[in-house]
Amino acid sequence: MSVRIEKDRCVGCAACVEVCPGNLLKIAPDGRAFVKRPEDCWGCASCLKACRFGAIFYFLGADVGGRGATMRVEIDGEISQWIFNTPDSPPKRIVVDAQSANKY
Amino acid sequence: MKALKRKYIETDVLIIGGGTAGCGAAIALARRAPRLRVVALEKANLRRSGCLAAGVNALNAHINPGRTVQDYLEYVRRDAEKIVRDDLILSMAERFNAITEELERMGLVFLKDDEGRYVARGKRNLKINGENIKTILENEVRKGPSTVVLNHVNATDLLKDKSGAIVGAVGFSVNFEEAFIVSAKAVLVATGGAAGLYRPNNPGFSRHKMWYSPFNTGAGYAMGIRAGAEMTSLEMRFVAQRIKDTIAPTGTIALGVGAKEINSQGEFYASKYGLSTNARAYGAANENYEGRGPCRLKTTGISHETEEDLYRAYLNMAPAQTLKWIESNEPPSKSDVEIEGTEPYIVGGHTGSGYWIDAGRRTTLKGLYAAGDVAGGAPKKFVTGALAEGQIAAESILADLNDIDDASSDTIERLAEPFVDSYERKLNRDESKWLFPLELEEAMQKIMDNYAGGISASYRYNEARLDVAEERIRVVERLVKSLRAYDMDDLLQVYELTDRLTVCRALIAHLRERRETRWPGFGVRSDYPNVDEKFELFVNSRLVDGKIQMIRRELTGKETVRER
After folding, report:
1. Residue A103 included in any domain
2. Taking chain B, what is the end-to-end CA distance rounded to the nearest angstrom?
3. Residue span of the structural domain in which B498 resides
4. Vertex B35 angle, CA B29 and B36, to 5°
5. What SS3 state is found at B198?
6. Residue A104 lies in a domain
7. Neighbour tally for A82: CB within 10 Å
8. Considering B320, B341, B362, which residue would you say is the last residue of a domain?
9. Final residue belonging to a domain, choices B415, B437, B470
């Protein structure tokens, strides 16, 4: 359970560093963000939502069933588009509207 | 040795912890007394800290049409097998609905029917889109004209003056070499409960994939214990029934979709055990213990549309589960969802563990108030209850402020210095004995798991095991004293572990004192496997001269004569 940072997309704005509830994200000497203790991540996805550059990818550890897929989110106002990339199938997208409540 | 820069702050009210209860208090104080100086200290960032970081998709404590506040009390009393404080539950529950409406005014989205009424989920729940609930609360806190939010500052200890009153707190920046010394007329502790005492469900790479926030380390309990505050019901641990691996909530599937628990023999077993939270947890644990696991929620056959709705619902509170369904190619419409019990947590918002408080949320220490998961005696708070407790504490603080003398800042400096000195000593790398916080954390979790009723012991423990737990936890406590930190981030880990160990020691004493099994889903005391009506009382404790003293109180709160 953790997140990975795509170095090429990270601009070092530190929005993720600011918001992580576990203080786990830091800025490396190269000016990009990194996850200091990946195993300490709760998986809350706060950093994904804070990153405006789509540089943070969420994944499941193999110990909880991870098989190489990643998830990230693009937020445009009230609409969040979650993008799932799995190794063997085409990407799946799920759109969540912040104005629509959970029905369950 | 590193020298930390001292930052002195003077305020009227200090709130330690900016989660749900802390935000509730800050909002209430600013509305009722806009000129009152309020400092909210938060070890991460108020915007996404505490239990609500990922979001929540129901408000679980609301008085739905046709129900009353008294009904809520009866429900909590039944669920907690009588060990509740009526005054605390009632004072909290009578605020649920006003707080709910306030959350809607702040921008929280509710599911509504055609006539604009909230859609109820059962007797007490409302359906919402709470992905952004914490950011909504943060925005509201920021509107306070005299409210200062200090993010990334970790409070470690309360400052107590000669008279025994709490006059402030001391902590450090998690990023910079700075110590914070805050003097305050009143201090509210709202740091949440304690996760990470026991070896978790996923002890390896995904060790923090747990139900409760792994960043809630019991700091508030620990600082209170060290300062001599009375604690209650630590032995009423909480074990949550969750989805296997991701430890995501089951309520959305069980209540929302109506999926039932089924064992590997195809039996719907839940009715054998009862409906209370602890009975449900015991059901799954016992089915596994007696060899009829794995247990699952029967979701197969749900419609494609329901499945897509579930994907969205989990993205708004526990996104790992949606990824798991998609990645595994085992969607809930085709595969039943396996469930498991979590490791035990100490969390006063679900069970009764925490500070012993009066109806105004005053602790037993003058000047110190408690709200939310650190406050004891009032289980089933959930979001609205935590906000209500913050509000009640705020009102008590305002009522009490006139009676409080200003502490001189000179005193505060003197009171804080030993703690700051301790931070500096721990930052002295040259003294390192090559022990690491993680190493000792795992040692602690293993001891608690094996000897104080963790997952591997099927939540069972007895006097002889508690003896071992106590002795070994004491050894780890000694070793922790020799830990040294490379930087402020390291220092945070050292203090988090120290706090957890303090809570473990008190917890073991409480487990020992309650010689019965009242909540089998939360723990079975093998040497006293039944409910004993002699224990229809509160088990409380207080640290006196380094020793934990047990206190028994009647359900009314009165201290009983100790029988030994």
Report:
1. no
2. 49
3. 426-553
4. 50
5. coil
6. no
7. 24
8. B341
9. B415
Mean pLDDT of B41-50: 97
Contact at CB, B202 and A61, closer than 8 angstroms: yes
Inter-chain residue contact B206 with A96, CB threshold 8 Å: no
Q: Residue B258: give its domain's CATH number.
A: 3.90.700.10
Pairing of strands B547-553, B178-189: unpaired
CATH number of the domain encompassing residue B430: 1.20.58.100
Task: Verify whether the Cβ–Cβ distance B323 to A58 is below 8 Å.
Answer: yes
Q: Is the ipTM of this complex over 0.90?
A: yes
User: How close, in Å, is residue B318 to chain A by CA atoms?
Assistant: 7
Residues B212 and B291 in one domain: no
pLDDT of B221-266, one tens digit each?
999 999 999 999 999 999 999 999 999 999 889 877 889 999 999 9
Tell whether the model's pLDDT for residue B563 goes beyond 50. Answer: no
Instruction: Kindly state whether residue B372 falls inside one of the protein's structural domains.
Output: yes
pLDDT score recorded for residue A104? 78
Q: Per-residue confidence at B431, pLDDT binned at 50, 70, 90?
A: low
Asked if residue B407 has pLDDT above 60, the reply is no
Chain A hits for B245, Cβ within 8 Å? 60, 64-65
Please give the backbone phi and psi of residue B530, each rounded to the nearest 5 degrees, phi first: -115, 165
Instruction: Choose among B45, B256, B257: nearest Cβ to A19.
Output: B45
Alpha helices per DSSP H over B197-266:
219-227, 251
Number of domains composing chain B: 3
Cα dihedral value B439, B205, B195, B345, nearest 10:
-110
Q: Do B256 and A39 touch (CB under 8 A)?
A: no
Q: What is the pLDDT of residues B433-452, one digit of tens each?
A: 678 899 999 999 999 999 99
Which CATH number goes with the domain that contains A92?
A: 3.30.70.20
